[in-house]
Amino acid sequence: MGTFDDSRMSAAQTQMSDSHNESEAQAALTPNPWEAAYLRFETPEEEIRKFIGRLNRLGARQWPSDAEIVELFCGRGNGLVALQRLGFTRLEGVDLSPRLIAQYKGSAKCTIADCRKLPFDDRSKDVLIVQGGLHHLPNLPGDLDQTFSEMQRVLRKDGLVMFVEPWRTPFLTFVHFVSEIPIVRRLSNKMDAFATMSEHEIRTYTQWLSQPELMQKVAREHFVPVHESFAWGKWNFVGKPR
Ligand SMILES: C[S@@+](CC[C@H](N)C(=O)[O-])C[C@H]1O[C@@H](n2cnc3c(N)ncnc32)[C@H](O)[C@@H]1O
Question: How far, in Å, from the CA of 136 to the mean position of ligand 1?
Fold first, then answer.
């Protein structure tokens, strides 16, 4: 049996290790600098409205409401909220960041995983959506080919892929130019967040934007396009698996 001092000591040690564990847990959930900029770039409601408009424009109204849909690279899950508000009920999300997934409060099942190796069975999903994730892949075109192969594997034969990624249209060039002006950054939180995100993802972002033909070629090797458009700095693609 321990003495009074021993038990006080062990209580203090437990307290110290509790607070150590707590601070470790806290640190694990603290967004990194890119994530912090992404979180302040748009409010959740702004992002949800943007996603609802985009989903409607790209044909989501025609999907059955019980379609099994996965939002890949789902981040804080506002794409899932948008899908739920449009009436879809069988939703899942995948993202690499436990810190961003922890911000999602909806009912979809979210999994922390790398989209280059999807945690789903072959031919098990109807729709796979990516909104601004592919340009984060570190090695192109290899990682894109691997991610698309995984998406092709997981989609049912009559399934659909939808992705929206940055594209160097004149609008994007203009936004980059403006967001890098110091006074604009000081006056606009949104522009500063955009410029900060761009700085932190500069390698993958530049790699993505500088090889547009190759990105399109890889997409076409895996999917037959049913819709493709380039507008407002985005590549919008809807396709069927080959
Ligand atoms: C621009 S965010 C997009 C988030 C979400 N689609 C949205 O628009 O709100 C990019 C996301 O990709 C995630 N990500 C980057 N590489 C990934 C990978 N290999 N597998 C899964 N997620 C990844 C990041 O954690 C981040 O949440």
Answer: 7
| pLDDT tens, residue by residue, 42-77 | 889 999 999 999 999 999 999 999 999 999 999 999
78 lines ligand 1 (CB under 6 A): yes
Question: What is the domain range of residue 124?
Answer: 33-241
Please indicate whether residue 95, judged by its CB atom, sits closer than 6 Å to ligand 1: yes
pLDDT in tens, 189-202: 888 988 898 888 88
Q: What is the CA radius of gyration of the chain?
A: 21
SS3 109: strand
Q: Is 99 in the pocket of ligand 1 (CB under 6 A)?
A: no
* Pairwise CA distance, residues 133 & 208, whole Å: 11
117 and 162 in a common domain: yes
The yes-or-no verdict on residue 1 having pLDDT over 80 is no
Could you tell me the end-to-end alpha-carbon distance of the chain, in angstroms, rounded to an integer?
Answer: 70
Examine the pLDDT at 212 and tell me if it is beyond 80: yes
Take residue 135 and report the two structure tokens written for it.
Answer: 């340009």
pLDDT of residue 38: 86
Question: Same domain, yes or no, for 110 and 6?
Answer: no
Q: Is 79 in the pocket of ligand 1 (CB under 6 A)?
A: yes
Same domain, 1 and 54: no
